[in-house]
Write a structure and sequence with these properties.
two-stranded antiparallel ribbon, alpha+beta
């Protein structure tokens, strides 16, 4: 269980997010305390174009797209914790279109995601 103020720890897994880049996973889903509602504009390092695209977390396709970008491009714990929310991640996990390496990495560290997807 994560303590408030405790720094999130991320692991660079053996699974590939894409060729030449390993998937990054937080050790504790409780550290994912990103926004659960409203709108989000991702930085260029996470969403390459068009700049300034707004993701509306109240719209399922927008939420899924944002989570796919963050999971695929995050390179550190801060990117994951700033933009992902544990409850939303669990809710949308079964519907996310992710590279196999990212899905395997997250489900290896957090089997509850796999169990939720199977339900």
């Amino acid at each position: 269980m994560s303590m408030k103020g405790e720094k999130a720890v991320a692991v660079r897994t053996q699974h590939l997010a894409r060729p030449g880049r390993r998937a990054v996973v937080v050790r504790d889903l409780a550290n994912l305390r990103g926004p659960a509602q409203g709108t989000v504009v991702l930085p260029l390092r996470l969403y390459w174009s068009p700049p300034g695209r707004v993701f509306d977390l109240g719209k399922p396709h927008s939420l899924q797209a944002m989570y796919q970008f963050v999971l695929g491009e995050a390179d550190n714990a801060e990117d994951l914790t700033a933009y992902l929310n544990a409850d939303l991640l669990a809710a949308v996990w079964p519907d996310l279109f992710l590279p196999k390496g990212i899905r395997r990495a997250w489900e290896d560290y957090h089997p509850e995601l796999r169990a939720g997807a199977a339900a």
